[in-house]
Design a protein that fits this description.
40% of the residues lie in helices and 24% in strands. The chain is an alpha/beta fold and 281 residues long.
């Protein structure tokens, strides 16, 4: 049994939060550059120029890519042969979030109560933690800052199984097109199909964490990704909603078993700066 201390986890989470807010992953940069070459609309080209200039400034000065540094979504895969020592795992993660957002001068955007007492917690805690137990003796931690502009555009539909492929295509396309410029496209669109209502949305978030532009290994789902990407980009919403060919940089689908009477579909739309970073302890 391998031991990993909460102090190590706290330190790693703090660094991941700071880096994720400022440094765009190379795979996302590649898709943005490819999208810039494909875009034909003058306004769309202008939007891409601004996006690329912003990325260069953030890289050079290590400053946030966006003023909305988001909710801290923390995905933790814990090896079953790991023993976390030194305290509570969730408390350690939240101390790391607080430290990273404070030391990185990242905007604190979390309120302690959603309805009656919308007072800012002051340190962007709590983080929103999703854990899985996996084989092995390591812990994999991924931090995804998720801003409200894109998160507000998430969608869930409990389709009837008879609606099938056409129902999925129509719902996902409509969700992205209806969002317009609100999520600051061009987006990476995560789609979760199956599980239950909660699980479908979680699948869609995990889909966004995949390598940007990488296809689902299943050929049918890979084809679905391509079909959805074409339909979304044919809509003409374009970069930042200004019109153009590139509304989405990629569509990434994850699927899971579900009930015989259900066809849950969750959609997570990212903004153009699909921020996330990962460490393995």
């Amino acid at each position: 049994m391998r031991e990993i201390s909460t102090s190590t986890i706290e330190k790693e989470v703090a660094q991941l939060c700071e880096n994720a807010g400022c440094d765009l992953p190379e795979d996302v940069k590649r898709l943005i550059n490819e999208g810039r070459e494909k875009e034909e609309s003058p306004f769309g080209k202008y939007a891409f120029d601004l996006i690329c200039n912003n990325i260069e400034i953030a890289d050079r000065d290590h400053v946030p890519l966006c003023q909305d540094t988001g909710l801290a979504l923390i995905f933790v895969d814990i090896g079953q042969d790991v023993h976390v020592v030194g305290g509570d795992l969730n408390e350690a993660i939240n101390r790391g979030v607080a430290e990273g957002y404070t030391n990185g001068y990242l905007r604190k955007s979390v309120v302690k109560d959603p309805l009656f007492h919308r007072d800012n917690t002051g340190d962007n805690t709590p983080g929103f933690v999703y854990t899985r137990i996996v084989p092995g003796d390591k812990i994999k931690i991924s931090v995804m800052p998720k801003g409200a502009g894109s998160e507000n555009m998430c969608a869930l539909k409990m389709l009837k199984p008879a609606q099938g492929l056409d129902g999925v295509l129509d719902f996902v396309t409509d969700a992205v097109v209806s969002a317009g410029g609100n999520p600051c496209p061009p987006s990476i669109v995560g789609v979760g199909i199956g599980s239950d209502a909660e699980g479908a949305l979680l699948l869609s978030k995990r889909a966004v964490l995949r390598e940007a532009g990488a296809h689902n290994p299943d050929k049918e789902y890979a084809q679905l990704e391509d079909t959805l990407l074409k339909r979304i980009n044919d809509s003409g919403v374009g970069p930042m909603g200004f019109g153009g060919r590139v509304t989405a940089l990629a569509v990434q689908v994850e699927a899971a078993p579900t009930h015989i009477a259900m066809l849950p579909v969750g959609v997570t739309i990212s903004c153009h700066c699909t921020r996330h970073t990962t460490a393995i302890l």
